[in-house]
Specification:
Length: 281
């Protein structure tokens, strides 16, 4: 498998990406979590996870999508967070949360899809949320084939109200108000929409962070659990609700045409030493 991957890499010629791929291949091959007390190790983009919990594929108010990817492992704080948010969504009749990727059985870098999600504290959730959308258990085929629709109108910066509802706003507010949540990444247009819609209660907007893409799902990142001593938090969030000039920047020409990243940029994540033991157990 690795050999085949390398041949593909040489043909394509992106050696740096290939090295990252080789590291990720090792983590992708692991099918079981380690036993013992859960520990998130390292950073969100260069970390790993021991003692992972499995998120049940169906729970009150949520369903896990893309089961074939087997990315339903996380720190127990993350699986509990999803279960609690699902419960709230059900109780408040906001609809069913469709859950995308958490992490791999032992975290680590992935071969596809993500630069983060390595330490068991990140989860993607689709914006597709309505009582009608998933009012029954979806079949495995549906979970593989359904795609998350963009909530943007065409390629514009406007929200497509056919794919957006007050339930989306409420679920984001519920999630942001949960103390274990560090931040939530959404498309800048979504952040702007939330800023415009919010009334007096605006504290929760601080955790809603504009980021590239994220127009068909939102990405929840939890804080390091206090007993994960080797877990690295991200830098603290700036003060304020973030509905200011920094948000306006995302709609400038500069933001929309980022310079190409230099080829020499290292892309292979350097994991903490403690992750070697997690991989080898
Ligand atoms: Zn994500």
């Amino acid at each position: 498998m690795i050999k085949q991957f390398f041949i593909g890499c040489l043909l394509v010629g992106f050696i740096a990406n290939c090295q990252a791929g080789v590291v990720a291949q090792r983590w992708a091959k692991i099918t079981q979590p380690t036993q013992g007390v859960a520990q998130s190790i390292g950073s969100y983009t260069a970390g790993c996870l021991s003692g992972a919990a499995i998120l049940p594929t169906d729970g009150t108010g949520y369903q896990v999508m893309r089961l074939s990817r087997k990315r339903f492992y996380g720190h127990p704080t993350l699986t509990h967070f999803i279960e609690n948010l699902g419960q709230s969504s059900y109780t408040q009749q906001l609809g069913t949360i469709l859950v995308g990727d958490l992490g791999q059985p032992r975290g680590g870098p992935t071969v596809s899809g993500h630069r983060s999600h390595t330490s068991g504290l990140d989860v993607d959730m689709w914006f597709l949320l309505s009582p009608e959308a998933a009012n029954r258990p979806l079949t495995n085929a549906e979970r593989e084939k359904w795609s998350a629709p963009s909530v943007l109108l065409g390629h514009s910066d406007d929200i497509d109200l056919r794919h957006w509802s007050i339930a989306n706003e409420q679920i984001l507010e519920l999630a942001a108000n949960m103390p274990e949540v560090d931040r939530i990444f959404v498309n800048p247009s979504i952040k702007r929409h939330l800023c415009n819609q919010a009334g007096g209660k605006r504290d929760w907007l601080r955790k809603i962070r504009p980021w590239y893409k994220h127009d068909d799902h939102f990405h929840v990142r939890l804080k390091c659990p206090t007993d994960s001593k080797d877990c690295e938090n991200q830098e603290p969030l700036p003060q304020g609700d973030g509905c200011d000039a920094k948000l306006a920047w995302w709609f400038t020409r500069e933001a929309k045409n980022p310079p190409p990243s230099p080829i020499t940029e290292p892309v292979e994540p350097i994991l903490p030493i403690a992750c070697d033991a997690v991989l080898k157990q």
